[in-house]
Design a protein that fits this description.
It holds the Pfam family Porph_ging. The protein is α+β, with helices and mostly antiparallel strands. The protein has six helices and twelve strands.
Amino acid sequence: MKNFLLSLIFILFTFSIKCQTFSGKVTYEVKLTFTKENLKQMELNNNKATNTMRKVLQNSTDTNVLLKFTSNQSHYEVIKKLEINDRKPLNMTYSIAGGSKQYITDLIVNKNTMKECELLEECFLIEQPVLKWELTQETKLIGGYLCYKAINTSSKNKKKKPIAWYSPKIPASFGPKHYFGLPGLILELEETAVVFKVKEIILNPKEKVKVIVKEGTKISQEEYNKKLKKAYTQFYEN
């Protein structure tokens, strides 16, 4: 009965947001939760790998990201794109937050697409798998909004499933990166090594929000992975 009621609430929520005009801009701050203590627990092959990871942790600074949404679509990207070259150390937080990638969600077709333009020197629109959620009754206040806990059960991570905290008070079925499909806006998201925390929410801004999907080659994740393996054979073999 509990699952039936939750499913009914979600269906009614989805129908309602498709029948109203609603938009917003959300800024999240992304923080690294992977610490030096976690590093000690890892079984790395040698001291060189350990020292490299330690330097990565030291140079991983907090990152801000932006989610723009309308009633049926959203666009997500990292706000400040860092210049990563031989002299710039890897910022793990920036990379996990999305790096140069963009994520576009379309509720009408129930899909999220990741746009990638750097690895293969061509822009690809990579369709992401639809997520499965376990809705719970656990709650907490975030920025004055009552939020409910949801667990991403479709994640392949066996040790820690991503956890989202969403607010039904904000009728937008969106969140950071490829996370969507909940009966409310995701205000906090916990992944394996980072946490996304809402920093600012602007609902129905005066300036009209537009979600524009730029051109790119549409491709499945499986097909894209094959192209990567072919282009970076040595990396995958190692």
